[in-house]
TrEMBL record:
It comes from the Bacteria. Keywords: Hydrolase, Signal. Residues 64-260 form the BD-FAE-like domain. Pfam families: BD-FAE (PF20434). InterPro entries: AB_hydrolase_fold (IPR029058), BD-FAE-like_dom (IPR049492), GDXG_lipolytic_enzyme (IPR050300). GO terms for molecular function: hydrolase activity. This is Acetyl esterase/lipase. Residues 1-22 form the signal peptide.
């Protein structure tokens, strides 16, 4: 009891001073990383003028753990996949900051630093991000007891190209990628897709994301496989979508076609479309006083995922 009160007091003190405890970082794999080639590729991290952090050339994928304040956790967890066009990770604004907001809801968050497609370090670059997302779901499920999580309440959230990754994981869990995937389920309990890249067809694609993941001249079968609106089934998890109508980078039609696919297959879905906001607004769409994270909180609560 004394320990619990001490941790709570420490958390409040750190919150008041704007500081936080160091976040645990879990390696995604033990031993040899599957679908990898030893070489000279080295991870790079760049800090922008506004303080933003961009990570490229990920070789060692990890999960950074964000735990709610003592006594507030509800057993639900979310794996967060930052965006960046499958060429970099906007790991602060679409990762760490989002994780802290989820903590305020009592949700334990895991920010996924996933491998970006790279022919120099991966035999099959098309499956590398999905392999890591599926392994993240296995790892969080395996670590559920340690973090006092409900293994049936693990969600997946993705931004932009990270939304494509989350949508891929949410529609392709029945056929895990990689050799010997094992028996642990890789189906997320729910999806949160933020201005996500959904389709790779010619009219809706984000060209950079498609080329980085599939190459310059992908086959029609590969384009179809990674056009996630075509992969929705009745088993696709409940989905929450957010997009801005004036998004010039990833057309709002991406979210719309995924929502329509959910309707056709009776998958519960909620979508919030803003007239303005552009692309990559992260937590804060400055064009509106509406807070999409409050809409997300309401949706999570309505589905029972915030109940302790």
């Amino acid at each position: 009891m004394k320990t619990r009160f001490f941790l709570l007091a420490l958390s409040l003190l750190l919150l008041a001073t704007g500081r936080s405890l160091a976040q645990p970082v879990l390696p995604l794999y033990t031993g040899t990383i599957p679908n990898s080639i030893a070489g000279n590729v080295q991870e790079t991290s760049t800090t922008l003028a506004n303080g933003g952090i961009r990570i490229s050339n990920v070789v060692q994928p990890t999960l950074t753990v964000f735990v709610p304040a003592p006594g507030t956790a509800n057993g639900t967890s979310v794996i967060v996949c930052p965006g960046g066009g499958y060429t970099r990770l906007s790991i602060d604004s679409e990762g760490y900051e989002v994780a802290k907001r989820l903590n305020e809801m009592g949700v334990t968050a895991f920010v996924l630093k996933y491998r970006l497609p790279n022919d120099e370090s991966q035999p099959d670059k098309a499956i590398a991000p999905l392999l890591d997302a599926q392994q993240a779901l296995r790892l969080v499920r395996q670590q559920a007891a340690k973090y006092r999580l409900n293994p049936e309440r693990i969600g997946l959230m993705g931004f932009s190209a990270g939304g494509h990754l989350a949508a891929s994981a949410g529609t392709q869990f029945a056929r895990p990628v990689g050799a010997n995937p094992g028996p642990v389920s890789v189906r997320p309990a729910f999806l949160v897709l933020m201005y996500g890249v959904i389709s790779f067809n010619d009219s809706l694609q984000h060209p950079g994301s498609r080329q980085n993941l599939l190459g310059k001249s992908p086959s029609a079968a590969l384009v179809r496989q990674y056009s996630n609106e075509l992969q929705v089934t009745a088993q696709t998890p409940p989905t929450f979508l957010v997009h801005a109508q004036d998004d010039k980078t990833v057309s709002v039609q991406n979210s719309i076609v995924f929502y329509q696919a959910c309707l056709r297959h009776n998958v519960p879905a909620e979508m919030h479309l803003y007239p303005k906001g552009g692309h990559g607004f992260g937590l804060n769409n400055k064009t509106t006083k509406d807070d999409w994270t409050e809409r997300l909180k309401n949706w999570l609560d309505a589905n029972g995922w915030l109940a302790q």
